[in-house]
Model the fold of this input.
Amino acid sequence: MWISQIRLESIRGFASQYSLDLSQKINLFVGQNNAGKSTILNTILLLQRQNSLTFTDITLGNEQGRVEIWLNELGNYARKYSVIDPQYNKVIKTFNKNGSSEGVIKGANGGVGFGGFPEIEPQNVLYPYLSKRKVANYDESVNLDATNSVTGNFQFLSAKIARLCNVNHPNSQAYQQACEEIIGFPISTVASGNGQKAAYIIESFTEIPLSAMGEGISNLLGLIVDLCIAEEKIFLIEEPENDIHPKALKALLALIEKKSTNNQFFISTHSNIVTKYLGSIESAKIFRVAMSFAQNSKLPISKVEEVANAPSARLQLLEELGYEPFDFGQWKAWLILEESSAEVTIRNFLIPAFVPKLKTKLRTYSARSLGEVEPKFKDFNNLFVFVHLEEIYKNKAWVLVDSGENESKIISEMQEMYSQSGWDKENFLQLSEHDFEKYYPDRFQERVNEILVITNKKQKMESKKKLVEEVKQWIKDFPDDAKQEFAISAKEVIDILKTINKKTE
Done:
């Protein structure tokens, strides 16, 4: 089940009606403090906690507030848990100034009263991870109620960790791996006076309890235990970057990306790391949430709009958050390619499938023609010489062109020219095939051969673009087959990427 649309009207700062079409995977809400990001997450929380908003949240001066939430694929959930009729697909919640409120879930044949989905696993729909998630003390009870409760805070964290530390639990290995990759060490449980407590075990009778660690560890653990369990659930996460080191945050975001294949996420953030990482995931949506004041009034007005999937719009978003271009972070390496079809295939598939560590290190770039390869590399080199970063980025860019006499000449000239200023000749490479389409799996080669003999340049280009789209769709539909077949057909390219990865570690 996932939320395809929400509509809110006269709720806190959202005096006007706002309707948001949502991604099935990642939805990011970016904006300054008090802009309205938490309001949107609490609107969704109504599905599971009917008091997450009340009549006190009606916009000042209005008599009624209204929330509508569209649910997709509710049938699977309904049949599995028998909590609700499968016909329903829309939840409506209204609040009146006199203190009364009504919740209804509707379908094609009418509706019934609705107070919310259960806050107990596995019947829960949501995993809330909002700002008030910290607790003064961790409950050390380890029983069914504690283990399966969905409180939205860390109260029963020990019980949830104990569940995953059982080596026979199907998600135990995933939990251990996540702890190692994100936190750096495993967190399990040990006996305590009231049950069990979370701790890092040093030896038989020595451990460091979770209560003695920094708040960042509990922030990470809280999400890790729920992410490892969740299947077809919805996460509401407020500012995942809080109290977390950037390196650990990036590892956590990688886990969120992995789990977004079968879970939906609503995340508010101020972080350019979170925005850049999760916003770059295919089909992710970014929403700008802003606050201003009504004309001739002190009344704050909130506004939310989807950010266009365009470089200028996304750059502007980061600048609005107060980040300067230098804060955006630099790629560790660059790969300049001769044509766009090679760049698309390498960036969208070969790197994620075969060298995933390059996803956040290597920036691929298409020069779009052989004649532009050397000028683009020159621009790259001049930029870092100008800003006095030449030594940092020397030998951190590769040029990769197709086979051919003209290509060979260009590569030889660049090797000769730039080796005199300290560049390695191995950074200027040439493939053994003249057309990158030759690296597609055998199933496409008949089409490739038909396209390569086309003499009309425009027709040939259009045919290549169409083939690229067909290959992309095939990869999406059959990822395992694609990985197996590309491992053979594109081995030469994959080996180059692996070499680049080793030189950037």
User: Anything to note?
Assistant: Residues 332 and 504 are 7 Å apart (CA to CA). DSSP finds 17 helices and 19 strands in the chain. Residues 457-477 form the longest helix (21 residues). The radius of gyration is 26 Å.
